[in-house]
Fold these 4 entries.
Entry 1:
Amino acid sequence: MSSLTSSDAAIEVRDLAKRYRLGQAEVLHGSLRDAVADAAARALHLARGRRPPKREAIWALDHVTFDVGRGEVLGIVGRNGAGKTTLLKILSRITEPTHGEARIRGRVGSLLEVGTGFHGDLTGRENIFLNGAILGMRRREIQAKFDEIVAFADVERFIDTPVKRYSSGMYLRLAFAVAAHLEPEILIVDEVLAVGDAAFQRKCLGKMSEASGEGRTVLLVSHNMSAIMQLAKKCLWLDSGKVRALGAPNEIVTAYLSEGHVSEQPGFADLRGPAIRVGVPKQTQKEILFESVRLLDVGERTSGVFFEGEPMRIELGLRSNVRASRLEVLCKFSTLEGTLVFTLASGAMEVDIEPGAFALPVEIPRLPLRRGNYLIDLYMLTSLPQDDIRGAVEFEVAGPQGVVTDPRRVRDYLGVVDVEQSWGLPERVGESSPATITG
Amino acid sequence: MAVAYRDSSDIHVIRPAAHWVDLGAGELWRGRELLYFLTVRDLKVRYKQTFLGIVWAVLQPVMYMIVFTLFFGRLVGLYSPSQKYALLTLTGSVIWLFFANSVTLSSSSLVGSSNLITKVYFPRLLSASSPVFAGLVDLALSSGVMLVIMAGYDTFPTWRMVVAVPFLLLAIGAALGVGAWLAALNVKYRDVRFAVPFLLQLWLFASSVFYTFAALHLHNPWRTVYWLNPMAAVVEGWRWAWLGGPHPTYAEVGLGTLGGAVALVAGIVYFRRKEREFADIV
């Protein structure tokens, strides 16, 4: 145990670590038979006088130490698998650390997902009470805030309708409204801003800055850098489970963005690592997974840089453990700040997939993006969600060669999307010549 | 979201758990409102999109009664009509089905709410126990119908029916313990899903639902083993409370209570020990 003296800290994290065993997913998701087979294999090794092969382990969170002051808003950034969600889950008591400790002063509210525990068959009213109770609100508290919640969500007319009949927008609004009316001293928020339309996101942001204005301590994980810079007073950069840097949001975000999501080979990402899927929603089946993504330029070369208007070819490497007859894949293009620009959607494809590896290409004849850096999120479903990888690969769009400009400034003038267009020449309108009076 | 399961003033320390088991009774007590809402949810959702709806709660024991009466009562000729074999099986089925349905639903509760478990903290035991409490509502309904059918046979309960309460408590305890144990096991080994129906079928035969203990002519040590099954005491005791006739001795009920207490404590201890890994593996 370490000496903990700073009394104004709301959260003190000391040497906190979480280890996941590789192969754990297979063994633990499997059946008793697999576990027995595994144990038998280990016993066999022992019987032969050899040490059983050690199960590999990864530190999803690798001995992290930091403090969060009372009333402080801490933004947490880092690429996929950096340990952000693991950290939030430990602080929310959802999962246990393997090592170290965290001291928390005050009531914690964690919002790792909007609408946790909502049940489609229950009405809006019933869900408000159930969801509120799950989030830790007292019944009296919920009753007192009920009208406010309903008004905030703008669902008065449908409050006694089962929520499965709601539009997705109404559903999100109601779910967020319940969460927004919690009054914890410490609020933990993960990527909530990634869902919903712009108006909804603004509402979320507003509510969160309100929370910090009231002196609540907020921990915020986001890929949305402008939200981090707008809200956070301090920023934590996690990299491979370790603290890379801790400091002023401007400096950290700039450093984080300038480093980019460096991979060994630009334009290619290996998606097989388990760390990449630490934050992937649990309801995904993981029967068919992305294994790799490769970006190819016009010359069929793997590339991380494309020129405006150039063709782009994306090759997805997939691996299936099952047979499937239906497949749908989405590639979502967003800016590093987290704005979704466009989505390539395959639609539901009739396929005949056997277990094994396969490749899926998709081509964009003309990349409609302005200069800047972009991320591609990958999402795949059969009749059930299969895989979901945020920020699977990053690429850069370069402007005409020779013209050096800061891409972020270009964006302010030109926006993000490069629309095909054709302009005419100026022509005089109206009478072709001044009227002449002949007498 | 918010963890209201502790005071706002205290300091909470998160660290790898020690090996001893904290039953977390205080936390469970503070989660009672959540238990209520989860139970209400289970009740409202259970018969959604079914044609017969709540009738299922009543239909099951009645069907048991009819089938058992036809097969064992007539075919095998075990019982003379005067013993009202139909009522023996009906009363037994009512309490047995409460137990069996509770255990079945409880065993799949954690896996069924994996989305909840990976996203929010709450005492997980509430999730495994809400099906048992929701089952009490079904039990009340089927008991009502049981009384009606009894009246049809010209049989009416006496003051003795208050004895049904302690036996019901024993059934609740056994269902909570066994349900929690299976629910925790199910998180890791999905074999449980296949094993539960089979286990309950065997257990049905080991509890005197469609026969009476007296008809078995068991001798020690099997007699003792038989009564260690809490559901044996529950079924015999519950039946006696409503119908009279032969009743289990104090020693026999004591054995069943011992069995039930062991199931309850062992189930909850196992659950609490495994609870911390649920979010990682469910």
Entry 2:
Amino acid sequence: MTPLAGYLLVAALLFAIGLAGALTRRNAILVLIGIELMLNAGNLNLIAFWRYGPHPEVLTGMMFAIFSIAVAAAEAAVGLGLVIQIHRHAHTTDLDAMNRMKG
Amino acid sequence: MSFVFYILSALTVAGALAAVLLKNTVHCALALTVAFAGLALLFLDLHAQFAGFAQILVYIGAVAILVVFAILLTKGSETPKDGVFSKTWLAGLAVAAAVFAVLGWAVLQSTSRLPQDVKAPTVTVQQIGQSLVGRYVLPLEIVAVLLTAAMIGAVIIALHEKEGLQ
């Protein structure tokens, strides 16, 4: 197994764990945690391909990962703000209990 | 495959599993911090020093703290009576397992075509800074606008509204 294949397998495993968390947990914050794990798995893929790709000096993969980190931070801030507002409105963060779009 | 890689990937995967499986939400957030730290160390192992330290600063320093704040503000640390997993957890687990099977199969099939050992690139922070204000200046500006919009949006969304007062 090449080193790149090892990193790709770890990233795939992390993505699957994050997806399982996002799909199976009840708490909205835990779903956001799962999404963060999936984004991080993507970043690991980008960095691994940058490191073992043909032209690492162009920095494409690394830049993509850095911008992805910035976008993920923005997503986390807005997502957690939404969860707090929903909790204030419906007094729960249980996603199974949120079955109406009209408050 | 080095020994360091195995230790770091085991740490990362264990942290991620604990973050998804634990019952107490605060413990989940702390396990998530471990997974983020393991990922940052994997980035350092891949000679991506800048991305590794950015990961530590942004994820451990900001996102994990934000998650803990959100848990404490929503009383999410109380374990619900009817379990922490949703009613359709089996379907979700099956979808995740299928996704991992497909990804793992694709990686293992293409192993012979992936590049072999390449000389480690040496990238200085100066190079990263120059490409950020050179080749990648437009994405940088867009990210600046996005972060400003997200910050204002998050503050407006989470702002406490009094009844009948807009």
Entry 3:
Amino acid sequence: MDTLQHLLAGLAAALSLQNLTFALIGCVLGTLIGVLPGLGPAAGTAILIPLTFKLDPTGSLIMLSAIYYGAMYGGTVTSVLINVPGEAASVVTCIDGYQMARQGRGGTALGIAAIGSFVGGIFATIALVVVAPPLAQVALRFGPPEFFALMLVGLCLITGLGGRSLLAGLIMAVLGLLIAMIGIDPVRGAPRFTLGIPSLYDGLGFIPVVMGLFGVAEILLAVQQPHRQVIKTDLASLLPSRDEWRRASGAIGRGTGIGFFLGLIPGVGAIIPTFVAYVFEKRLSKTPERFGQGAIEGVAAPESANNAYANAAMIPLLTLGIPSSPTIAVLMGAFIINGLTPGPFLFQERPDLVWAVIASFFLGNILLLVLNLPLVGLWARILYLPYPYISAGTLLFCVIGAYSLQQNVFDIGVMIVCGIIGYGMRKIDLPIAPLVLGLILGPFLEKSLRTSLEMSAGDFSIFFTRPLSLVLLVLAALVLAASALRLPPREIREASTD
Amino acid sequence: MPTSGSRAGKLGWQIACLCLLGVFLPALVTSLGYSLTDALGPGPGFFPFWLSLIGAVLSAVMLAQVTLARTDDAIAISVAPDRQAALRAVGVLIALTAAAALFEPLGYRLTMLPFIVGLLLILGARSPIAISLTALAGSFGVFHVFYHWLKVPLPIGEFGL
């Protein structure tokens, strides 16, 4: 069966009333998460996983994916109306979006953001359909040494690009990998670091850890921040004028391209594509002085890049099993909870599921456009909800989510402890992304390493005698070396704390 | 990581480095108790040993870097929250811990009802009607949705609630 047939079959599955409903619910919840300042997509996706426990894997993953890209859409509303990004990727949108709102053009800013996001999301999904199957075919030829080297590249990219200090990033990645070692050894069955606590035999649950690091930590930080004033702006006219269309259309195209290509690289994070798209537009503009004063290109380009990135970031996950960001890692966790391992084998073993999820991206983007344009006033009203109620709701879902995965109160304790750790890490600016990625990739990395060494009877040269493995290891070393030499521009490194 | 900064910021990083060493060093010692190699190659202790060792060395290097960094009191990095904010954060943690402790003995609904009320009061909500309605919705309402509709197993306590 060729790609088109798979896609049509996936589309038929995604268009079933049940899956369409899940996509719609996911889009609404995701937009809500994006709209609520402080609650990022990683925490939002994690705390809503319990909603999907009893769904079939296809429905569950369609809903969680919709939550993910819905959150990427929703973050714009707060950026424009209160100058606070609803999620990290909307930081750049604040610059011109907020100025547009102050000038009474908030509706236009939100309108062009929704249109740009739609174009970016649809383009990236089309590219996903084209790129993913051949990439998965290539990845099928990978053996354990290649997978080990590939995961190492992913971790190095996230560590190298994911923060201001390479050393701190490395330590966090190592800590994440070490935490992943807690529990029963997957090869020999020996307990490790379990301290005699039966609840630790299955390891530390990924979801409670992520809920703590992101959800609880965000609430602990939020109680210290003053609340922001919502700008009263015209939300009636959402469509740009002819001149604004002319300015925005090129920016949408360029932002989409930038977001898509950067989405393919693990570790880039959601902020960098938006930042690069913004800077690119400003440099290209004949009137760069308008940027920062309410230039529509300053909203169109980063928003298109943001959603193109969000959809393109699914390519490394679905084809190689490499999550590009903490939010994608949460999605990977959701796959694992459903008994599925993302990667090339998934295309062979469960093509029905993979293609239904991919097809749902098209529907999700259409649903989000419909939800975002006419209902923008409703989303704006959510900003008037008092923060104590939002925080209480978030913590409620965190408790339910942490407990219900294994029906174990111990996991709520894990979440609380991780919340305190996450709070401390945010306060001193230690990067969380490498830790989360290390945690999710740890078991796979260890299994690949040990299987490789078993293949070679303990001889490490297996990683250097296989050409692809060698190339990937050299690439990993180059990424770390470039980061150590501080080759990525400072602005990029500082923008990349996802 | 600060190469210069306030004393408070530097202290925060030093504490973080010491905490990391406090994790990696015991892990290193513990991992020595697992076999590093066996007949088929690397044993259960292989990965933990090297990770702990690398983590401990990197943490020690970072501690040295931070300690030797220039301290510039002119740059204010706020690490410690103000008293009110700290009290609210501690209150949230106490509420969460109490909820965890009572979750199974009392059941979801009886635990969450006071949890939400307490949490809202800690976070600054003052409207008794809004607090009561939110608490009822968050405890009995959410239980109904999750337990009966979504079939998510939430605990029922000794009082049958």
Entry 4:
Amino acid sequence: MQPGVAPAPVEPIKVGGPADPNRRRLKYRGRARLDPKEPFIGWLFSAPALTGLIVFLVIPIIAAVWVSFRDWNGLTPIFDSTPAGWANFQELLLDDGVRRTDFATSLRNNFYYVLGVVPAQTFIAFVIAVVLNQKFLKGKGFFRTAYYFPSITSSIAVTLIFVFLFQTNGAINLVLPIQDIDWLDNPRGLIHNFLGVLGVQDGPAFLTEREFMGLELWDWLAGPSVAMTAFMMLVTWTTSGTLMLIFLAGLQNISPSVEEAAIVDGAGPIQRFFRITIPLMRPTIFFVVTLGLIGTWQVFDQIYAGSGGDPRKTTLTPAYLIYVQAFTNSKAGLAGAIAVILFVIIMIFTLINRRVIRDTGDF
Amino acid sequence: MRRNKSLVLILGLALIMVACGGGGATTTTAAGETTTTTAATGETTTTAMTGGELEGVELRIWGGSSGEAEDAALTGLLEVFNAETGANAVFEAQADMTTALNTALAGGEPPDVFYVDSNNLPDLAAAGALAPVPETALSEPDDIYPSLREAFTFDGTWYCPPKDFSTLGLVYDPAALEAAGLEVPTTWEELAVAAEALTTDTQAGLAMGVEYPRWAVFMFQAGADLTNADVSVITLDTPEAREALQFVADQYSAGHFVRPSDVDAGWAGEAFGQGKAAMTIEGNWIVGYLDQTFPDKTWAVAELPAGPAGPGTFAFTVCYGVAESAANPDASWALIEYLTNAQGALAWTTAFNVMPARASVAAEWLADHPELEAFVTGADYAHRWGFAPGFGDVISVFNDQANAIVDGDGTVDELIEETVAAGEDVIG
């Protein structure tokens, strides 16, 4: 620079404009100017999967909701059905009768099933994942495969084998040191059994005399039947593997430096587990519990192959009731209504789950 | 950039697999393989069909499959039909017949001919999904047992001819009866005595499923029934029904009758075959099952013991139906005529242990199966197994209460009360 000469004025360079040397790096800041082909390519790649989702997921859901407001028997073309307004929902929720009682029974059974299976499978999956995540464990690949293996088996095949194992003279009773239990024939609810041990045989009058949706309050508090408990064990065994993998992925996302910092600060293993691991796993736990809720409220395969609602309708579930109403009783409209109500129930439980496990705004 | 594009491709494929994987469908229709083995019946049947009439016509028959023997027998008959008429009729066994048929009907592309169980007929007929039998399509319709024709008549219209039928009979172990010094029971009292005498520590007197299709025969024998003839009124609350149900309940509580699942058997036939019961009340299908699974077991069948009002049993029967929306109804009825006329009925029931639905053929069939006479004579007084659309819920209430009685925490009065209430809900 020559002394005494003012520097030449410099044109300000527009950020992101053609003269900006950082243009390539700034490409997607502000108003992005994309190659016009890119959105098209994006849609093209998503199209097959989107078509599959729309045809096999979105349209059937809309159709099910529509059918629930119609009186369709499932035997004639769907557009020949007559509109029924709220009649199906009324029959399920308000009208005193066998259909409402069956629906109430199925809701009660499934509620206890969810209450038992979701905590059990989440807890078992989490514990196994934590154990498999240890640095010192040898043969992790083998254990991972072994615990995941039940999830990839056919649910029908597994159910048939479990029915065989749970027979009164079957392998389970052979191994258990206590008196033989008639697993699949016992319709007595666990809570009733427990109260029976305490000396309460029949319900108190204020519970047996009141009814809700056609079912006595005392029956609402029956708990899962012994047969249902067998199915709960089956499903926990099958799904823990999948959930374990999800937890493992979540655990491996926790950077080891966090753990090391905690060790340096003097935290013991239990403190580390409860103060560091679990809070950091909150989003994963939320995801796993949601998956569990959705899956358990829709249990069907095991009931269809295993018991068909027996003994005494204590393994009846809403999903199985949908099948029975649609195909055996040719009341597809009623089945649609059950499906819609089930959807609402699952949504409510998922929202409750979200509130309970709510993190401070991370997800 | 190249890495990003391949990543997108992989993700796209993964999404496709997720979309197509779905949530685990459980029921799928399985179109069976058509066997090209020679006809299992080993008979050539002559038919009244003029050759070449149905040249090139494709016909699909759908039915539930009870096993390879039945499938092979039907395919054999169809091959003869195809050879004589030039048509191409094919039998497709369905794994889940109800679901498959319902979806095909709802979709407007039903199979040309399909099995209709007498219990499903009211639902299909009330929905207008079945075509009634045309006037001149079938030869000698009066030859068919009236009770079976009635089973397939809804609202006065006859919808389909039965392909065969089975009744319930008393299947027993002759050696066990003889060892106890007993005659074959013919009345309720004799049945009770025999069941008690044959009940030992390792064997029950009689195994019977705890469900309406079994318990109801006792009601028929006492002169009672669940509904009236045209299924418009529930008639369960009568002293005769109480008498019948109390008799059965008492036998179970005394341990002389046993529920199959209580002895770890899948059904009563299995309990009988395994020797866990000396007698059972089951239908013809037990014959094929015993021959195949327990070939060394000796058995005999007698008519069900008569009750205070006489004999009574169930007729379980399936017919060949044609859909209202069938593509080629003339061809369908031609095939049904071939399968259900006198020669067709005999050819079908020769290979397979069901009974022909035509009275004229009964004598010839009995000549081949003299030991099954008790099943055939049941046709004279058999009640039909079928009610009204949507009646399944009422039957399931009956079954539930019957199981409560056998469990020990239900009574006959409760069963009647609950079933009547449910029945009035469903049929108004």
